[in-house]
Write a structure and sequence with these properties.
By secondary structure, this protein is an alpha+beta fold. Helices cover 31% and strands 34% of the residues.
Length: 70
């Protein structure tokens, strides 16, 4: 069963940042789709909660160098 997490991400300033974040999240086990909206720093992540949690998604964002806002 797939769920969607909507995250607010700070620190993205260009399309390159958005692409880097999208590619990093797409590489996380359990993630099936990622949509990044640079304006406003919004990220929607379709994921399998049996494989990864929202906290794990936030950690992946932070490991990429951005801040995931609760």
């Amino acid at each position: 069963m797939t769920q969607t997490a909507h995250l607010t991400v700070e620190g993205m300033s260009c399309e390159g940042c958005a692409k880097r974040l999208r590619e990093a999240l797409e590489g996380v086990d359990g993630v099936s789709a990622v949509a990044v909206v640079l304006d406003g720093g919004q990220v929607a992540v379709a994921y399998d909660p049996a494989v990864i949690t929202v906290a794990g998604l936030r950690e992946a964002v932070e490991e990429t160098g951005f801040d995931a806002v609760p």
